[in-house]
Amino acid sequence: MHHLSRRTLLAATTAGVAATALGAAPAQASKGPSDQALKKIISGMTLEEKVGQLFVMRVYGHSADAPDQADIDANLKEIGVRTADELIDKYKLGGIIYFQWAHNVRDPHQIADLSNGIQRAGQRQPSRIPLLIATDQEHGIVCRVGKPATLFPGAMALGAGGSHSDARKAGQIAGAELRALGIVQDYAPDADVNVNPANPVIGVRSFGADPDAVAGLVAAQVKGYQSANIASTAKHFPGHGDTATDSHTGLPVITHTREQWERLDRPSFEAAIAAGIDSIMTAHIVVPALDPAEDPATLSRPILTGILREQLGYDGVVITDSLGMEGVRTKYGDERVPVLALQAGVDQLLNPPTLDVSWNALLNAVKSGELTEARLDESILRVLRLKAKLGLFKGAKELYVSHSGVDRTVGTAAHLAAADRIAERTTTLLVNKEKLLPLSRRTHRNVLVLGANPASPSLSDGPPTTVIGAALTERGFSATVLATGTAPSQAVIDQAVAAAAGKDAVVIGTYNVTAGSAQQKLVNAVAATGVPVVTLSLRNPYDVAQLGAADAHVAAYSWIDVELRAAVRVLTGAAKPRGRLPVPVQRADDPAQVLYPIGYGLRY
After folding, report:
1. Are residue 92 and residue 205 in the same domain, yes or no?
2. 423 lies in a domain?
3. pLDDT per residue over 332-366, tens digit each?
4. Do residue 143 and residue 108 come from a single domain?
5. Which of 353, 381, 409 is the last residue of a domain?
6. Residue 348: CATH number of its domain
7. Would residue 601 count as lying in a domain?
8. Residues 141 and 270 in one domain
């Protein structure tokens, strides 16, 4: 048995009990191979196998050995192999990441079969090391596995609910369903503290703007996920919550002082570590106060080794954010990035743009002496410890999944009902002039639904306006739907105004509204008709500051069905609004002034 702290052992024991209650296999942290046994495995590996073990890579296709021709072509073009089988054979990978756009996640049985095929490919390798199959299933606006899996409100919605119990329950159920599909590592929860309303990449993926509140919810989610015997990943260290640049397309710079970082960003990661977090993902951001050399955190030894390892005492797996993102590629070439990441303290290298370049860069760095084989062994031991904790070395029963297990676990009525209950507790009422809400079937029966339709093909029963309309109809209202989009033309605005004539109320779904935008003009124009207007923010709650013409405003925090249906139940009085803002909303005309503070939320 490898050495675990008493706290980690207690967490693992508690996790096992919770997982059993959910019908998932409990984590067996104390019964996996010992460090001595894992080191013996490492000593028998070739250098090529060791290098491969550090990579987690994308691959196109719904099947490990028989993907569609278009996916074979994409694999050949981007990776130089035809299938997942060939990818694992050639590069001896430690892990695979699933994406919708890579066609990995069509339906639950297919996902389970793909996972089994990938693990079988791993077992054919000389070292027979299981793979960590991972995905980004944060819930809310970031989900890779869609329906019929249970989809939960995202982090900011859970922040509005404020319930540690709900956050943990969502993690437990989500983790159990992923594990039933053969996915054993989830890149969630997001531990960033969103203190910048203009943040283009985090926003509602964060639990909120209060560091202590975020820390408590992060810890609850970590315990929930890991109780279902799945590895949880807190991201993005050292904190991506105050960026105005998207690290997918540029290199953000965080200007926090060291004291601000300690107060704002540190608590949530510290809470994740205290909760026994299995892995932590790095951020492609520059924080000069933490690293005067201004290297991206992913490549920064002062940040990853100096702060995360030494000061915070974290000895679990550190994984990079995707190495295909521009934020990590702006300062160094792709062949230098994996070497610098290992030197900084990283263990897993996620999704490099060109695997052959990155894989050979590490191989050559060891051969040249720039990296020692002992340094690779250190990271491989952490990765194998995690695989052992998850029970992946225990045999076929833990390694492979079944269709019957999928059917017993994924999208069950009990899980879906839990998601609905949790969503109701997150919906936040911010404006309710003259007590317009809840809408009454007697006085507001004929409702026009307008607004944006963010795309979420496998996460919804249809576009948001359609889902809202259907939910109103189910509640006994007569709903007419007219999708106006995020940038309605004057002709579309005129059409909406005409459609509002004779209606009892108008519900408008808004999406990232800015001053002077077409969405704002739509709301103003419809409100000018005198018909009562309810706006429903489909993403950021900050929309409300731009929508003074609305008679009522509700924050749903996402366009995912579970949150939209809950919002409609609140609009119509079938549920009461219970959410409270987890972030402050500033005035549109004076951002220095707070319009609605953290904790604000109306009731009825």
Report:
1. yes
2. no
3. 889 999 999 999 999 999 999 999 999 999 999 99
4. yes
5. 409
6. 3.20.20.300
7. no
8. yes
Same domain, 55 and 163: yes
pLDDT at 31: 60
pLDDT at position 16 over 60: no
Q: What residues make up the domain containing 442? A: 428-596
Model confidence at 60: pLDDT above 50: yes
Final residue before a domain boundary, out of 378, 409, 440: 409
Do 468 and 404 have their domain in common? no
Catalytic residues: 248, 321
pLDDT higher than threshold 70 for residue 24: no
From CA 469, how far away is CA 329, in angstroms rounded?
Answer: 44
What is d(CA 239, CA 403) in angstroms, rounded to the nearest whole number?
39
- Residue 241: count other Cβ atoms within 10 Å of its Cβ: 27
Which residue is associated with the tokens 């607004």? 451
Tens of pLDDT, residue by residue over 207-265, are: 999 999 999 999 999 999 999 999 999 999 999 988 877 778 888 889 999 999 999 99
CB atoms < 10 A from the CB of 15, how many?
A: 26
- Give the CATH number for residue 456: 3.40.50.1700
pLDDT in tens, 99-146: 999 999 999 999 999 999 999 999 999 999 999 999 999 999 999 999
Report the predicted TM-score, pTM, of the whole model to 2 decimal places. 0.92
Dihedral sign for Cα 514, 519, 521, 524, please: negative
The SS3 of residue 534 is strand
Position 409 confidence tier, pLDDT thresholds 50, 70, 90:
very high
Domain count, the chain: 2
Place of tokens 């975020």: 214
DSSP string over 76-141: HHHTS-SSHHHHHHHH--SEEEE-TTTT--SSHHHHHHHHHHHHHHHHTSTT-PPPEEEE---BTT
Residue type for position 365: A
- 3-state helix vs strand vs coil in the chain, percent to 5: 45, 10, 45
Average pLDDT of the segment spanning 69-84:
98
Cα 517 from Cα 543, distance rounded (Å)? 11
| CB 581 within 8 Å of CB 428 | yes
Tokens of 364: 């050559």
Q: Which of 193, 233, 238 is nearest to 211 (CA)?
A: 193
